[in-house]
Specification:
The complex is a heterodimer of chains A (61) and B (346). Chain A is of the alpha+beta class. Chain A has 2 helices and 2 strands. Chain A has one domain (3-55). Chain A has a two-stranded parallel ribbon with strand order 1-2. The radius of gyration of chain A is 13 Å and the shape is flat. By secondary structure, chain B is of the alpha/beta class. The mean pLDDT of chain B is 94. The chains are: A alpha+beta (61), B alpha/beta (346).
Chain lengths: 61, 346
């Protein structure tokens, strides 16, 4: 499992072990300030980071 | 005492979640609960400045907020920093705790805050701060401010605070040596006797850490993997057919996306009261990224997008409950042959 969240310290605290930084509490996989195509690009980037995290070794795994 | 008080957008009177992105601002004197704080502190003390900041801004820009607060505290030569109390508001509690630690470390004046026991701010900062357990209800504001003031007065006078229970702060997990009348053996037998008699007893050591979750091994062949999306942001179909509660949800739902290339706002709503949901309602892919996952599936980056996404609300959800929800969801996904999960959090 990979967790995408905008508030990384809390995810770390509870022991989530694959964490990706999201882009805002109200739109963790988006950005309402961007035009739609750019926002989708951003979402794609973040999701790809999550996919990479799923493939990654973690300390202790 | 000259006090600087930190409040979020709600207690600072700016508004609700709609202005959670408000950058920090400073006001002269007390605002909202700060006025009650002044009454509790008495005539010799006053809130000289109030810093108000939106909870999302605080969570997303901690360094900017820290610099802002430190500047204000130093400029007015305050001798006490008070943050909150924050009750159950998690972003607020986390920000309040961080600011109290920053002020204590960088400026060296006493700092005190209050929040509910399950607020994430407690576990993040309890070891470094005296945090009053405010409980969940805002109606306990006066009682909480009274306890916070009592601690502040002692800290300002340079006094050592004694045990948590006597001073109304949440145990910090610090062990201190002391002399007692009875040996450990005697105390233990008394405790055991009370327990077997059904009487009340006070444990001397309570465990408060999160058990560590061993990391699953990496996904070996992601281009053939079945990936499920799970969210705690409360996205549900219009009408919330499973009645997932918006707060302290005890249930979760799974929703078919097998024919969806992306999610449309008119088909969904959000059952979660802890954030401004309009952006997710406009485009649910902002929380449950079906559009991008579908593209990656088509390109062969991932094997398959699981035909359902799973949703619940993480707002003010007691830990024992969340653990149960997580275990149930994990079992369902395992039984469905899912290889990996992307969990999205509001």
């Amino acid at each position: 499992m990979c967790q995408v969240t905008s508030v990384v310290p809390i995810a770390k605290m509870v022991g989530s072990n694959r964490i990706v930084q999201g882009t805002g509490i109200v739109h963790v996989l988006g950005d309402a300030n961007l035009p739609p195509e750019e926002e989708k690009e951003l979402r794609r980037k973040t999701v790809l980071q999550a996919i990479e995290a799923l493939k990654a070794e973690t300390p202790g795994s | 005492m000259q006090v600087v008080h930190y409040l979020n957008q709600f207690f600072g009177g700016l508004g609700g979640e709609d202005v959670a992105d408000a950058p920090p601002e400073v006001r002269d004197g007390a605002v909202g609960p700060g006025r009650l704080l002044e009454r509790v502190m008495g005539q010799d003390s006053q809130v000289v400045k109030t810093v108000i900041c939106g909870d999302n801004y605080a969570a997303e820009n901690p360094e900017i907020l820290k610099a802002f607060v430190l500047k204000e505290v130093a400029a007015c030569k305050a001798d006490l920093f008070v943050a909150g109390p924050c009750f159950e508001a998690g972003r607020y509690g986390a920000a309040a705790g961080a600011l109290c630690v920053d002020v204590g470390t960088e400026i060296g004046i006493p700092a005190v805050t209050g929040m509910a026991l399950e607020n994430p701010g407690v576990d993040l900062y309890r070891q470094k701060l005296y945090i009053v357990d405010s409980g969940e209800s805002v109606s306990d504001m006066a009682a909480t401010l009274t306890k916070m003031t009592a601690i502040a007065v002692k800290l300002a006078a340079g006094q050592e605070l004694g045990a948590p229970a006597e001073n109304n702060y949440i145990p910090r997990g610090i062990l201190r040596d002391g002399f007692v009348d009875k040996s450990a053996a005697e105390r233990m037998v008394e405790m055991l006797y009370a327990k077997t008699q059904g009487q009340a007893f006070q444990s001397e050591l309570t465990v408060t850490t999160f058990p560590s979750v061993p990391a699953p091994p990496p996904v070996i062949d992601i281009s053939n993997a079945r990936i499920a999306i799970v969210t705690d942001g409360g996205l549900v179909p219009q009408g919330n057919p499973d009645n997932i509660a918006h707060t302290a949800a005890t249930t979760w739902g799974s929703y078919d996306i097998s024919k969806a290339a992306d999610l449309h706002g008119e088909d969904y709503e959000v059952s979660h009261r802890g954030y401004d949901t309009r952006y997710v309602c406009q485009d649910p892919d902002r929380l449950v990224p079906v559009d991008v996952m579908r593209e990656l599936e088509g390109e062969g980056v991932i094997g398959k997008v699981h035909e359902e996404f799973i949703s619940t609300s993480g707002l003010a959800n007691p830990l024992a409950n969340s653990r149960r929800l997580g275990q149930e969801i994990a079992q369902k996904l395992k039984d469905s042959g899912v290889d990996a999960v992307v969990l999205t959090s509001a």
